[in-house]
Amino acid sequence: MESLHPDVQKLLLSEDDIKRIVERLGDEISRDYAGKNPLIVAVLRGAFVFTADLIRSVTVPCAVDFMAVSSYGDGIKSSGVVRIVKDLDTKIEGRHVIIAEDILDSGLTLSYLIDLLRARHPASVEVATFAVKDIEGKTPAIEPRYVGTHVPNEFIVGYGLDFAERYRNLPYVGVLKPEAYA
Length: 182
Known about the structure:
The chain is of the alpha/beta class. It has one domain: Rossmann fold (3-Layer(aba) Sandwich), CATH 3.40.50. The protein is built from 3 helices and 9 strands. Helix 2 links the parallel strand 2 (39-44) and strand 3 (63-70).
């Protein structure tokens, strides 16, 4: 049993669970992109841990680049306004692009990002998300091609996921205690 941070209410995914999920996604991407040299775009900051593990699990040649978008600030709910904080350094025209995302909830930010990238004429744009948050009565605005796992509609931290830039370094995924963000 892993020792939990005092602010974490319960464990959702252990380090071993995470490793199995990422290896499965890497296998799927390797199969689907054989001979295509995809560009994997990490959505900073949350997805950098997932992306690092994912590209090590992909066995076909691939490249990586980074984008930073903001719709949360230091809050716990999206503001609905998407800002590009850091754009790609790589030209994507004609490239197969896979957006690596940490967690998908409403999908509105990701939908905006997909539209932005498609306007640059890549060969394809797909999404690999580590987790999809199951929100009762709501379907995300996009359907990712690669889904690692589903998580409950609670405040999730660890494995790159944060609250106000804290808890990203936890090696597992857990539910944050409400008093930690109240």
